Amino acid sequence: MKSIVILPARMGSERLPNKPLLKIEGKSMIRLTVEKVLLSGLSPVVVATDSPLIVKEFEGDREVVCVMTSPDHSCGTERVLEAYEKVSSDLGQFDFIINVQGDEPFIDPELLKGLPAELLKRKDRAEFFTTVTELPESELTDRNVAKVVLDLKQNALIFTREPLEGAYKHTSVYIYTPKFLKTFCSLEQTPLETKYRLEQMRALEHGFNLNCIPLPYDAISINTIEDLQKAGIDNFELFT
């Protein structure tokens, strides 16, 4: 079973502009995230970006393929599809595409390392998967943390940013079959996707299964300055 890891990284975040190139203790956030992915042993690793500055960040790096994509995508998943279509002619076809968000500098490589075995067990349940973990009580009311409730087959019932008892925390790694990725990107955006800024709701509102993989790994995604403070990071430099 072959998989490829693609990291979407755009410069135009509304909550934290230019965040892929924000420096944490001297390294850019996208660089730190890529280093964690490489430590998992998964390959190939592709960065999909809308910025020549991010391409320059990986210039000469033989372990990473960096691909320029359109600045007009409505979500990271659409950027992942464009990158996959651009690299697959050289790298070949894959069974699964693993989407690791570019704002995950604290992701645990062990989470990624365990995905191939989990996907092998679950491949008959869905063509779209994501990772979740136990929701810390301290993050129940945090609207920057996406929460999800599961059914008995561990398929997602609903995602929200609101407090929800019995929910899991979404840990932001998506996995798709190439066929489903293309289907997802052909779907119209949906009301709950727009309301909560949660692209996975597009699949649920159109009636597709999203199978959730509970794993005991948590990490702080960086969406705001407050997230950096939550992660205990004092040494950072905004990119302007």
Topology:
Blueprint: E1 3-9, E2 23-24, E3 27-28, H1 29-39, E4 45-49, H2 52-57, E5 64-68, H3 76-91, E6 96-100, H4 109-113, H5 115-122, E7 128-134, E8 147-150, E9 156-160, E10 168-176, H6 178-186, H7 191-196, H8 201-205, E11 211-214, H9 225-230, E12 236-237
Parallel strand pairs: 1-4, 1-6, 4-5, 7-11
Antiparallel strand pairs: 2-3, 2-12, 6-10, 7-10, 8-9, 8-10
Explain what you see.
- With about 240 residues, the chain is an alpha/beta fold.
- Helices cover about 30% and strands about 25% of the residues.
- The chain is built from nine helices and twelve strands.
- It has helices spanning about 30-40, 50-55, 75-90, 110-115, 115-120, 180-185, 190-195, 200-205, 225-230, and strands spanning about 5-10, 25, 25-30, 45-50, 65-70, 95-100, 130-135, 145-150, 155-160, 170-175, 210-215, 235.
- Strands 1, 4, 5, 6, 7, 8, 9, 10 and 11 form a nine-stranded mixed β-sheet that branches.
- A hairpin with a 5-residue loop joins strand 8 (about 145-150) and strand 9.
- The mean pLDDT is about 95.
Short description:
This protein is of the alpha/beta class. 30% of the residues lie in helices and 24% in strands.
Number of domains: 1
Mean pLDDT: 94
Number of strands: 12
Q: Quickly give the CATH architecture.
A: Alpha-Beta Complex
Order of helices and strands: EEEHEHEHEHHEEEEHHHEHE
Radius of gyration: 17 Å
